[in-house]
Amino acid sequence: EVQLVESGGGLVQPGGSLSLSCAASGFAFSSHSMGWFRQAPGKERDFVAAISWNGEITIYADSVKGRFTISRDNAKNTLYLQMNSLKPEDTALYYCARDLTGWGEYDYWGQGTQVTVSS
Q1: Share of the chain above pLDDT 90, in %
Q2: What pLDDT is attached to residue 66?
Q3: Which one, of 82, 83, 108, lies nearest residue 95 by Cα?
Q4: How far apart are CA 69 and CA 58, in angstroms?
Q5: Can you give the C-alpha Rg of the chain in angstroms?
Q6: Which of 37, 6, 18 minimizes the C-alpha distance to 87?
Q7: In 3D, which of 50, 75, 44 has the Cα closest to residue 64?
Q8: What is the H or E stretch that residue 8 is in?
Q9: If we measure between CA atoms, which residue out of 30, 53, 56, 60 comes closest to residue 102?
């Protein structure tokens, strides 16, 4: 059974940092590209970042470029999202997802971890 479990969310002040993790199990993690998404209340789920199976290729939404860093540790079956210089508009439920084909077709999602940026 494929499982993706996010952790690391919380409340942080503007300008602060948080590091999210996504523990993967039930599939060959090292064979799949992975992504992070987020959904704010009343809004659609938005793409945040993605990383290739070997970590060599990363892409980011313009809104987080230069502030967020996606990475992975295939030995630990874990995906990460380092978030710096956080803004109130980054407040959302953050999800990790598995890319089935490597072409942005995400088929499994975690339950999400809440990030709240507020003073």
Answers
A1: 96
A2: 97
A3: 108
A4: 9
A5: 13
A6: 18
A7: 50
A8: none
A9: 53
The C-alpha atoms of residue 58 and residue 7 are separated, in whole angstroms, by 21
Distance from C-alpha of 38 to C-alpha of 54, rounded to nearest angstrom: 23
Task: Check residue 102 and give its pLDDT.
Answer: 83
Q: Is the pLDDT of residue 99 over 90?
A: yes
At residue 29, the 3 state secondary structure works out as helix
pLDDT above 90 for 103: no
The helices-and-strands tally (H runs, E runs) of the chain is 0, 11
Answer yes or no: are the C-beta atoms of 34 and 98 closer than 8 Å: yes
Query: Closest by alpha carbon to 93, among 63, 48, 26?
Result: 48
